[in-house]
Known about the structure:
The protein is α+β, with helices and mostly antiparallel strands and 152 residues long. The protein has a single domain, classed as 2-Layer Sandwich (Beta-Lactamase), CATH 3.30.450.40. It has 4 helices and 6 strands. It has helices at residues 3-17, 23-37, 73-81, 133-151; strands at residues 43-50, 53-61, 67-69, 85-87, 105-113, 116-125. The protein has a 6-stranded antiparallel sheet, sandwiched between helices. It is globular and about 40 Å long.
Amino acid sequence: MDVQSYESLNRQAQALLVGEDDLVAAMANFSALINDSLDKLNWVGFYLLKDEQLILGPFQGKVACSRIPMGKGVCGTSASRKQTLRVGDVHQFDGHIACDSASNSEIVIPVFNQKSLIAVLDIDSPILNRFTEIDQIGLENLVKSFESALFG
């Protein structure tokens, strides 16, 4: 996707989230919107931070890992660093957790309520190097819209 496509997707996400205050419902529709809008994906979903581990939340895709320890795999590392991780080849990522053997690249974006980490948005692709800098910026902006809609 290009910058303009991400801006359009962001407007759709904002419209989708208007008036929604239930976190699970918002996460479910948000992950469905991304899954339907971006190509070459095989998993889109959230892991929620609970008791210092990531617990599977609403998602689109195949059966997934239910729990991920903080600091482990791409999701746990993104959560512990509180920063986006874009990995072109997950098989080269030290400690990668293979929930779906078809996944080859991944991007994980932290989700905050004010300044507190509450979840990560995890997006996987069967294509190596699927996610570009434009994807990262566009997806980070989508997550900011999600945070604003749900947490002000």
